[in-house]
Amino acid sequence: MSALILHHYPTSPFAQKARLLLGFKGLSWRSVKIPPMMPKPDLTALTGGYRKTPVLQVGADIYCDTALIARRLEQEKAAPTLFPQGQGMIVTAFAAWADSVVFQHAVSLVFQPESVALRFAQLPPEAVKAFLADRAGLFNGGSASRLSAQQARHQWPSIMARLEQQLQHEPGDFLFGEPSIADFAMAHPLWFLKGTPVTAPLVDAYPAVSAWFARVLAFGQGAASDMSAEEALQVARAAQPAVLPSEVFAEPNGVKPGQPVLIAATDYGVDPVAGELLFAGSEELILRREDERAGVVHVHFPRLGFRIEAQ
Ligand SMILES: N[C@@H](CCC(=O)N[C@@H](CS)C(=O)NCC(=O)O)C(=O)O
User: Which of 6, 7, 8, 14 maximizes ligand 1 atoms within 8 Å of its Cβ, making it the mutation to test the pocket?
Assistant: First the structure.
């Protein structure tokens, strides 16, 4: 069986979500550290251009976006489940909201000047400037726009009051009773805020949220061991991509199996990936591409939040 290889960096909230998912499932994994900003030549050799963090690699199969990574981990180990029976709709809808709306609030609050000054205090000013310029560029061409810090501060009390109330009245220890993908999607933006003294009180002021947050973090991060980016590329080169899912190919806009396409995220980080569309299912798209360094790889994307452009 191929190892689970997570390409990530320590301070990334979405990477923290993936690490907690690995912890929840009690999985062992290999850890490849990637740069927090472009260029990321070793990562994009695998993905074909997708630049967001994190990415999961299993042999010659590359999984983009934590919404799909969660499903791949569920396939790897079904129990404990991230999608409790009968709750799939509610927990995935909630997770999509937390990953977009709540995360955008957290980004805006963490990047307000007082917080940036503390968070990046150790870095030389040019490095901070380069990082902020990279993040501004991340939004070029996407449907997402940056929320102003003023609007984020204004709206934050509603988000947290709802969360506090849900956790006070929920008889179980987690958002919807037993743990689910909803808890991990909500936890990573809060983890981001907890990372700086300026923004930590935005979480600490809510006791039921704080107690729940500690329970989510207590799942840990599974057993990780380091791997170099070069070794991960070797793994991809040496492996055969997995057999395609048995679900029938369904592409409502008429793209045919094997057709050359571009696939890109629609919100931000919209760098397109070129290849042949091999599979289009209800949740997942699979692209075949050949790379000088990675060999033949299958790059997997969620259907939601991504677009296909026929070439
Ligand atoms: N929808 C994506 C969002 C991932 C995301 O926004 N990651 C941030 C880091 S937390 C990112 O890619 N930032 C730019 C970068 O790392 O280059 C997912 O669920 O994986």
Answer: 14
How far is the centre of ligand 1, averaged over its atoms, from the C-alpha of 272 (Å)?
15
The per-residue pLDDT for 1 is 65
Q: Is the peptide bond before 241 cis (omega within 30 degrees of 0)?
A: no
Instruction: Give the model confidence (pLDDT) of 256-303 as tens digits.
Output: 999 999 999 999 999 999 999 999 999 999 999 999 999 999 999 999
CA of residue 120 to ligand 1 center, whole Å: 19
pLDDT tens digits, one per residue of 93-112: 999 999 999 999 999 999 99
Residue-by-residue DSSP string for 49-75: S---S-EEEETTEEEESHHHHHHHHHH
Tokens 């609007």 sit on residue = 151
Of all protein residues, the one whose alpha carbon is nearest to atom 6 of ligand 1 is: 52
Residues with beta carbon inside 6 Å of ligand 1?
12-14, 36-37, 51-53, 65-67, 99, 138, 269
The architecture of the domain spanning 4-80+223-310 is: 3-Layer(aba) Sandwich (3.40)
Which fold, 88-217?
A: Glutathione S-transferase Yfyf (Class Pi); Chain A, domain 2 (1.20.1050)
Task: Report CA(306)–ligand 1 centroid distance (Å).
Answer: 14
Token reading at 202: 């935005």
AA letter at 111: F
